[in-house]
Write a structure and sequence with these properties.
It contains three helices and no strands. The chain is mostly helical.
Length: 68
């Protein structure tokens, strides 16, 4: 176990501790793939049977047709 001096403790109190993060992970390449169910066609159109999805589809349809 490391032995800390009073100088080390004072510097931590005055300056704080800096934690270094690990290596940055590369983000997934943008290939246009759908990652969430919410963006798939069945969920957007409400075709999968969920009541809330049907309601959201109706809202989207009304919003799209509002200024036509």
């Amino acid at each position: 176990m490391s032995q800390f001096t009073s100088d080390d403790i004072e510097s931590v109190i005055l300056n704080g501790i800096t934690f270094r993060g690990g290596p940055k992970k590369e983000s997934a390449p943008s290939t246009g793939k759908v990652r969430s169910k919410a963006k798939k066609k069945q969920y957007v159109t409400g075709a999968h049977g969920s009541g809330s999805a049907k309601k959201k589809a109706d809202i989207r349809k009304a919003r799209a047709n509002r200024h036509k």
